[in-house]
C-alpha cells in the first residue's frame, strides 16, 4: 500500500499541492525552475517535434526488417508492426495523462516515487540506466554492421572505427550542451527521414521494374 493518497500527493507535501492548484490557471513554470535544481531548457518546439518523430525510427528499420519479413512474410510483419503500434499508442496516452497530472521534474522516474513508493522509483531509475547502458553498445554494433554491408567484400576496414567515431561525437555533443544537441538531432532527424523516403521510393521503383 502506498504511503501517499490515491492521487499521488501527501497532505504534508505543500509544494506539489500548490503547484497543482496553480496548474489549473496555467501557471506551472515553477515546477521546472532552475532554482529547484532542474536543467536549463534550451530545446525549442521544432527540436522536440523532430526528436519525437525520428525517435520512433530505430536501427531495426535498416538492420532487421529484412529478416523479419523473410521469417513472418509481408502480412505477418505488417500485422506485428500494427499490433505493437497500437500498444504504443496506449502507452503514450498513459504517459501523457500522468505527465499532465504530475508535471514534475524527473518524468517517470519521479512519478513512480510519487504514486507508489520511493523504492519503486529507485528501481525504475536503475533499470532505465541499465537499459541505455545496454542499448548504446547495441546501437554502436549495428552502426558497424550497416557500414560494413555497403563496403566491398575485399575491403579491410576495421569494424571498431565507426563505433569509435560515434562515441567521440556523443561525448562532444554532451559536453557542448542541450542546445547543440537539439540542433544536431533536428538535422540528423531530417536526414534520417529523407533517407527512409529515398529507400521506399527506390524499393517501389525496383519492384515496378523501373530500375
UniProtKB/TrEMBL annotation:
It is a multi-pass membrane protein. GO terms for molecular function: amino acid transmembrane transporter activity. InterPro entries: AA-permease/SLC12A_dom, Amino_acid_permease_CS, APC_YAT. One of its GO terms (cellular component) is membrane. This is Amino acid permease/ SLC12A domain-containing protein. Keywords: Amino-acid transport, Membrane, Transmembrane, Transmembrane helix, Transport. It comes from Linnemannia schmuckeri. The keyword RNA-binding does not apply. The keyword Transmembrane helix applies. It is found in: Membrane. The chain crosses the membrane at residues 49-72, 78-104, 125-151, 157-177, 184-206.
